[in-house]
């Protein structure tokens, strides 16, 4: 069975979100004759192969009908919900999905029979009396088919709808579009980066991973960036990721070995495309004025784990200890004691000063989870916030933190002045400041997380109606994971908090640089990017 047909079967399992005809509970439906289109149909630039498509477009009474499969409907910006009480609801949304061919080995008959849907239907909140429609919704192969009339396609859904005797029917929707990138099929099984005119990706060759880069305008002109062995006692460890560091440098990282005895490796890609390993271990690192500051997260957690690698030296053997050797740096202790540890928020470097979460050896309650400033030249170590914190981040000349006692977000200037309460609600485990905006998650009375934007007047604004499992900031863009399973993938917000897209595709990796987004999908390992129509107008 082909991979694409496996995807189609999976989509049928997802059918709770499909516009499918429920079994039982309804009166018998009328049967009508339908035919395959004898003209070309193009959906968002994709030519539909109707003769060999599992769910082809159909024609009834000279009107083309569109199959509302899970991926087809979302590719055109439509979401459907079904309940036994309310029937089928179809809603225009900022959702998107890649184009799926639903390829079939069996050729479709030129004509067939479909049924007129008899269940309750609403479109954009308006009820549809399907029995009285000149062009009613149909069901075929247990999938609901929608008539592409001008009233629906143009007026209700806002699609660009054109007919030409030579070109046939063309439909273009105004939701964000995922454009498939023509990289080797195996590239989608790992992370992909789009960086300064090149796609960076990984192919596995036997017991080695090979990192390549290819120009955006000539994918065949690839060149090797870096090669490394992936065979260990734990098997072939293929996973490799890309990230941006130090404002605008492209790095790659991968893990070798076990969880405790293994280690991470961090490589940097030079402007000429050459990759080299710069650091090894479990650590966070950031450049300072006179070298690289490292927080060592080796386990078990132990004190004296803040280091400086001076400039012109490479390798941890050249590192020197900085800060108070009796402090445990970088770790947060959620229970205020030594029984549990979690990696805290990353350290932040400003000039020769390192801001880092620290606890004094002995783990007395009044010495845990404080922010300290360590000067890398004088080694002066100073507590900068008088309260214990659970998270912190430095943005510009301000330091943001969540106080451990009350769970509200505060900030103050790096010179130690003007402490301000910044959130009107208690914040949970995430917050970020992007382009001067502060966002955070807060629990409602039912225990669900919602995303808020802090406002100057104290009336913080809820950004999304969806309950969220988590939010991550990637290059100042907000990547939200829904908690209710309504979308299979992610909700993406731009740095201003504006909704960009709701991903119907499950996403395994995502990379953002200069406003360009490239992703790999979980189920079928497609490499896709958000197209030019991705920006939603106010």
From TrEMBL:
Q: Could you tell me which residue ranges the Prolow-density lipoprotein receptor-related protein 1-like beta-propeller domain spans?
A: 365-478
Signal sequence span per UniProt? 1-27
Keyword check for Signal, yes or no.
Answer: yes
Keywords of this protein's UniProt record, alphabetized? Signal
InterPro entries in alphabetical order: LRP1-like_beta_prop
Establish whether keyword Signal is in the entry. Answer: yes
What is this protein identified as?
DUF5050 domain-containing protein
